Amino acid sequence: EAKSSGTGEIRLFEIWMEQAATLRSQLEHELHQAIENKEFRVFYQIQVDSNLAPTGVEALVRWQHPTRGLLAPSEFIGFAESSGMIVEIGLQVLETACRQITQWQDAPQTRELVVAVNVSAKQLYAPSFVDQLKQVLRTTRANPACLEIEITESQLIVDMQVAIQTMQAIRAMGVRISLDDFGTGFSSLSHLRQLPLDQLKIDQAFVRDLSLNPNDDAIVRTIIELGNTLKLDVIAEGVETWAQHERLAQMGCERYQGYLFGRPCSVEDLNLAPGTVRHERAGLHYQTAYSL
Ligand code: C2E
Ligand code: MG
Ligand code: MG
Ligand code: MG
């Protein structure tokens, strides 16, 4: 009952609200500054195929904050999304990723690498997004086939028809589309069939508990079969152990991303060279480029 909460508690709540508002406006100010000063950096995390050969990378934004150091997306993406600033930040990430594609497309060993870029709902539903994408591809001269847009399942629910139209326009440019965090949203099978997609990305929550939780085994197996039926690539994210990798391979998964193959890092630290470290497990021999 309202009367039973003392005025002290209410005062405490007010102080907390004031502090939260102060922090929010400080973050807003700093983010505006960050956009202007281009303080965002793009890290890349490797993705590999069945032979553990790199097929591409996911671009993951970091904020090089002037006093707080390198900040992970969890520190600012939520606010950037709710304030709309993600549109500008996302554009900077897209430009950086496309410039990276242009650098890689000149060398034979890196020519076919696909760079996946996360796009939030605010970006996807902005009427200017398709034109911006075209513009960035034109000015950077990046090969569209080397760009992949990652959209989460939950974004589609906002307005399925607009999402589908935008996705069709993206694919018409030759850019790939991957459905991120798949299995955590609510897209029905009939929706999935309508979507212009190239890849399903199994959410890391299902990968984490593989072989521990029989339900997760069943979900992962179902997603892989669904991908095969719909002729989509399937990639597993959050792969941390060889046991998880082995289970996924048995179930027919052919692409992997996770700490096992490399953490997100700067392009300078990225190891794309063909294998040197040998891993042996249960009679399987892998040639990998990664120190285990
Ligand atoms: P996401 O797109 O699902 O990206 C995967 C996240 O899982 C990344 O976190 C990655 O570092 C982490 N991860 C990769 N492998 C493993 C693993 O083996 N184990 C574990 N525990 N985690 C792993 P990160 O970089 O902190 O990004 C978090 C989220 O922030 C992303 O989730 C994405 O939703 C968002 N994000 C990142 N960059 C951008 C961006 O440029 N634009 C937008 N709109 N969102 C972004
Ligand atoms: Mg992603
Ligand atoms: Mg994901
Ligand atoms: Mg995620």
Automatic annotation (TrEMBL):
Residues spanning the membrane: none
Residue ranges constituting the EAL domain according to the UniProt record: 24-278
Residue ranges that the Swiss-Prot or TrEMBL entry lists as coiled coil: none
Domain of life, source organism: Bacteria
Name of this chain's protein: Diguanylate cyclase
Originating organism: Orrella marina
Source lineage: Bacteria, Pseudomonadati, Pseudomonadota, Betaproteobacteria, Burkholderiales
Residues of the full protein shown: 657 to 948 of 962
